[in-house]
Amino acid sequence: MTIVSSSQNQGETVKNYKSSYFGLPALDVSVAFPQATPASIFPPCASDYYQFDDLLNPEEQALRRKVREVMENDIAPIMTKYWEKAEFPFHVIPKLGSLGIGGSTIKGYGCPGLSITGSAIAAAEVARVDASCSTFILVHSCLGMLTIGLCGSEEQKQRYLPSLAQLHTVACWGLTEPGIGSDASSLKTTATKVSRGWVLDGQKRWIGNSTFADVLVIFARNTNTNQINGFIVKKDAPGLRVTKIENKIGLRIVQNGDILLKNVFVPDEDRLPGVNSFQDTSKVLAVSRVMVAWQPIGISMGVYDACHRYLKERKQFGVPLAAFQLNQEKLVRMLGNVQAMLLIGWRLCKLYEKGKMTPGHASLGKAWITLRARETVSLGRELLGGNGILSDFLVGKAFCDLEPIYTYEGTYDINSLVTGREITGIASFKPAELSKRSRL
Ligand SMILES: Cc1cc2nc3c(=O)[nH]c(=O)nc-3n(C[C@H](O)[C@H](O)[C@H](O)COP(=O)(O)OP(=O)(O)OC[C@H]3O[C@@H](n4cnc5c(N)ncnc54)[C@H](O)[C@@H]3O)c2cc1C
């Protein structure tokens, strides 16, 4: 017997099928091993069991339909290929721009001024088909653009927002550093005042979109005040270097970068006047945390939809997988999770719209939804058997994509502690003993 590698083996099998049976393009799993439809032909939505549309206004419903259509028709067919290559599909940026969600809740400056509910449901619909695309848009829109929208001068908003809203230019948002993750307010990058501007020195890590962003929103510590300030750095600034982070197991389409800032000059007109302390980032994070909470909702919907179709298509023991009681229980548990997640996400939006949402509310939402989503995608992965580890059927890819989302925008632990502090009045981010010693 000749032993061949799995890729050789698959190529052989495809060639055999191709020459003897099908005559269809090689390396299409549905052709090589005809057993179920791959996610490039996206499954119909079966996850909206409690008819969530009834809770949306007509504009939000229309936006939801539009985003779903574009994602299913234009993005689903290509996403696996780009995910596998860990490359960004630049040619889809105009398509994503045409969705009219760039700038989301910002009013004016060419931005759509969406309700937070509309923005959230759009984020979920993007994530339902591809989580990387939703991260790309959220980093651009709800972090980069929103910081300019909420903390920028009138002149900065007029200069930067219109082209960012159309996705003619792309933004990123740099807070995290190699040595500073959860403890973000301790960041070390410095901003030193010089004649007509500022000089930035330091490093940033994990920054989404940064390898190609035109506009980099960077947070740095003012060496005079010791407070955190915000700056707009342009991609061609001398002293700026960005290196792509390779070998990620999730959100592989998102281009995360390590940023080196060495003596980078930022003119006075590009310092964000509304960021004078770390607290000033909280109004941006309030919105972005709600948006990030909607990503796992969308991911879970897509996974449920894929499983629902797969279980009816694939047979074992002479019957569809959907006929087994154990599989039905898992499917129902996933469906229950999705309904509960949608309702928590929706309530968060309503609290925000009424000006009643607290940081604890947003953190509980993000933490709890990602926890339930982790259970949901694990069940989905299990239901697809071996095919559950392939990116082609969506579930394996979504399973991996959820992991970074569980961690970014505050890990599950940190978000739990934010809510814990709010409900008990006791902050427990630093172990008391160590914290006492570090003050000595
Ligand atoms: C794919 C991806 C994209 C990202 N995009 C961006 C971006 O665009 N811009 C940006 O600025 N950042 C970005 N980040 C960074 C992200 O916000 C951080 O990874 C996150 O805040 C966690 O920081 P860390 O990875 O350094 O983990 P650490 O802070 O080192 O934490 C490690 C573990 O310790 C736990 N832990 C830490 N402190 C405590 C505590 N006090 N109590 C209990 N447990 C604790 C954490 O919960 C975690 O489990 C991204 C990260 C990833 C993975």
Which series of helices and strands comes N to C?
A: HHHHEEHHHEEEEEEEEHEEHHHHH
CATH superfamily of the largest domain: Butyryl-CoA Dehydrogenase, subunit A, domain 3
Q: Please give the domain count.
A: 3
Number of helices: 13
Distance between the termini: 71 Å
Helical fraction: 40-55%
Largest sheet entry: 8 strands, mixed
Family: Belongs to the acyl-CoA dehydrogenase family.
Protein name: Acyl-coenzyme A oxidase 4, peroxisomal-like
Domain Acyl-CoA dehydrogenase/oxidase N-terminal: 58-166
GO molecular function: acyl-CoA dehydrogenase activity; flavin adenine dinucleotide binding
What report would you give on this structure?
- Helices cover 50% and strands 14% of the residues.
- The protein is built from 13 helices and twelve strands.
- Strands 3, 4, 5, 6, 7, 8, 9 and 10 form an eight-stranded mixed sheet that branches. Strands 1-2 form a two-stranded antiparallel sheet. The chain has a two-stranded antiparallel ribbon with strand order 11-12.
- Residues 1-27 have low confidence and may be disordered.
- The site of flavin-adenine dinucleotide (FAD) has 20 residues, from strand 3, strand 5, helix 11 and helix 12.
